[in-house]
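Researcher: Before we compare anything, I want clean individual predictions. No alignment, no superposition, just each chain on its own. First chain goes here; please echo the sequence and then give the structure tokens.
Model: Echoing the first chain and its structure:
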Amino acid sequence: KHQSVIMVVSRRLVQVGRVCQVNYGNDAGKLVVIVNIADASRVLVDGPTTGMKRQLYNLARLNLTDIVVEDVVRDMRPGRLAKVIEQADIQAQFNQTSWAKKQANRAARANLSDFERYQVLNSRRTVSKAVRTQFNKLKKN
């Protein structure tokens, strides 16, 4: 017998209103919104709340997020775009994603002192030992 498998694929399409994160250069980490699509590899982005001026950006330098602002129309003016972005509270939405939490965790870990890294190591050892002993107790029964 032949079975057909249906897979639901979540795609992050390049579209007007899609929120992206810059992944390269001085602006890396800033959130921007796609305002217009120039061609297959470049888009016009604007980030009035993050201090990014409206400019053409290569798609290779952007990470598309799952967040889409439906109220954004093509070539929306910067002032109106800023109001729409603040109403949608994009930064708060992004901060709730696991992606943003991982970035925050990496940044916090990068700023640890030597002693703080040692404390993290010891706490991981303690937790691991407690889990291992409980697991072995349950395994015996």
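Researcher: Okay. Second chain, same rules.
Model: Second chain and its structure:
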Amino acid sequence: MAAQSKLLFQLNKYYNERVQVRKAQVGKTLREVCKVVQDVLKEVEVQEPRFISSLSEQNGRFEGMEVVSPTEFEVVLYLNQMGVFNFVDDGSVPGCSVLKLSDGRKRSMSLWVEFITASGYLSARKIRSRFQTLVAQAVDKCTYRDVVKMVADTTEVKLRIKERYVVQITCAFRCAGIWPRSAAHWPLPHCPWPNPNLVAEVKTEGFNLLSKESTYMKDKQSSAEGDAWVISFTEAENKLLKGGYRKKCLSILKTLRDRHLDLPGNPIIPYHLKTLLLYECEKHPREGEWDETCIGDRINGILLQTISCLQNRRCPHYFLPNLDLFKGKSPSALDSAAKQCWRILRELLTNSRSLESL
């Protein structure tokens, strides 16, 4: 027990000295970045009222803003009126789906009429291309034009702010109250976590469809695949992380990642750690396994799982296991991340004061 309380003391110290500092720094950056993005989006809206900014601050949090890493952010811009389209995920591109004009509906009934292909699909690529043009014009006109630039050589809409931060702005549709067929196996039949009430809440929350590149689309030449939308479960995942010390655990892992695993080729991003934490929740389904005294064990378990995924060169998405989150990463980058992960884990397991230097 003495060893456990020593570890708990070290973890709390690490959380207060390192994690809170990271959080405060990221929070400060977020406010800086959001001011610029809001200004750009205001200009976009003047030119094209269909693209309405949904980025807002609520209780100190920015709704619609995801922290990818301390210098990379993603803003999700929710579009209106998906109603005349059917959501079709037939699995032809893992992690993606298409939006097809419902039978009997006329194109003219859609707010997005000029982005509907001849086959009746709402093209994610065409909407993104139009939005990119609007953002480029807005960047030239906005108040912060001296500190913001468009990132060239990409079909994504990305801004570079103060030469330090990159923000991707992604158009999206909310799909609440429905659940994708490709995630129909979830939750696993014999796993006690999450409990049925939480499952119902998560499925009601639904998912988002994002207009962005997928590594799986790069292999596909047909234009229909380029018109597909990427399925995202960010809100559903966040709901699952409520309760116990799950979020604290993730914050510690993200801080370790920023300090020791921010490697060339970006083999490990915070989203991988979030995914592996969700798998760890299934392995340790009881709430008591996520209280403060167990955090050290959970962190070690997730690092071990991270090493296993890196060595196998595969990290399955939590809701869509056919989707490999390591696709497109170079084997050498994955190998060096595995070695570095081992180093951290070995330190944690063999040195009771390791967190002082990590």
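Researcher: What stands out in the second chain?
Model: DSSP finds nine helices and eleven strands in the chain. Additionally, The mean pLDDT is 92.
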